[in-house]
Amino acid sequence: MKLELNGKEYFTGQDITVQRLIDELELDLKSTAVAVNKAIVPKSSYPAFVLNENDKIDLVTIAPGG
Amino acid sequence: MEERKEKIKIKDNNNSKINNGLKNNTDKEVSGDVLKIGKYIFKSRLLIGTGKYPDFETMKDAASASGSEIITVAVRRIDFNSKENLLSYIDLDKYILLPNTAGCYTAEDAVNTLRLARELEVFKTDLVKLEVIGDQKTLYPDNEELLKAAKILVKEGFTVMPYMMDDPVLAKKLEDIGCPVVMPLASPIGSGLGIRNPYNIKIIKETVSVPVIVDAGVGTASDACKTMELGVDGILINTAIAGAGNPVGMASAMKNAVEAGRLSYLSGRIPMKLYAQASTQMEGIVF
Questions:
Q1: Residues of B in contact with A41 (CB under 8 A)
Q2: Where are the domains of chain A?
Q3: Is A27 at the interface with chain B, CB within 8 A?
């Protein structure tokens, strides 16, 4: 299925959860936060949160700033 | 000068030997002189940003040289093309990371950015730097949106550190809604113009009882020193260090300047006089 990941198209399996997406991308859980369709997903919901076709996912972390 | 005299007078009531300054105050006041932000206590009065360094290694060394305990970072989409990770250059046992809301133009965006940040375990405290920009050219904050966002965030349990105009009225409002610190700008972000309105900064300091951290505009070490001599509680610096010819050297200079300025303020400068006053006694002169 197609997702929009950080503004770009991303293809992955059906019914993937946020947790599995993070695992698939090999992201560090401690330094990653997730929003789906601009709604923040709490960390405790990752394993149960199933993504849908065309969902807009924002995966964020820290970046340089003042 | 009159203002200064008044200040000394006020201090005299508390400590009749204020003019002997350091001798009497070092042990008690100066060595125990800490920066309190809400429930957090810091020894260093210099906070630094992580933006605009030539590379992460330099940022790491500059942070170390600055002696800072709080360093600011932004919250951004993961760049999957980037090979380097900022986090691998930051010792989380040594520094408290302060998420900012740089680039946010509405209260809603700023609040959501910090709610998102709260999900990041690298942020070990509820301290946040709130900035809501109102104008692209000056990067001046939007007062209305700032207050709106601050109210929401305070309610949600964040320890809000608001970047604000050098406006005493606004400072009071932010204090009243529960910000445990206010952070007026010295001059526009990244401008290096130093303090454009030292009188307002002084008025802010006298208006609020929470600490005042000057955020943005400091250009060089003498600016930092002069700012601290006004009696403010700390300074947040990014560009002046990151953009210096030698950022690590400048970080060290800023550390010393902030410490010197603080000590100078606590010690009480002499009043300015128009004419000379000999420092050598005339008594016993031969010729």
A1: 119
A2: 2-61
A3: yes
A2-61: CATH, from 3.10.20.30, 3.30.420.40, 3.30.390.50, 3.40.718.10 = 3.10.20.30
Please state the three-class secondary structure of chain B as a single string: CHHHHHHHHHHHHHCCCHHHCHHHHHHHHHCCCCEEECCEEECCCEEEECCCCCCHHHHHHHHHHHCCCEEEEEEEECCCCCCCCHHHHCCCCCCEEEEECCCCCCHHHHHHHHHHHHCCCCCCCCEEEECCECCCCCCCECHHHHHHHHHHHHHCCCEEEEEECCCHHHHHHHHHCCCCCEEECCCCCCCCCCCCCHHHHHHHHHHCCCCEEEECCCCCHHHHHHHHHCCCCEEEECHHHHCCCCHHHHHHHHHHHHHHHHHHHHHCCCCCCCCCCCCCCCCCCCC
Q: Do the Cβ atoms of A33 and B116 come within 8 Å?
A: yes
Residues of B tagged active-site: 129
pLDDT in tens, B180-236: 999 999 999 999 999 999 999 999 999 999 999 999 999 999 999 999 999 999 999
Residue A39 at interface with chain B, using a CB cutoff of 8 Å: no
Interface confidence (ipTM) of the complex: 0.94
Pairwise CB contact (< 8 Å): A33 & B75: yes
The predicted model scores a pTM of 0.87
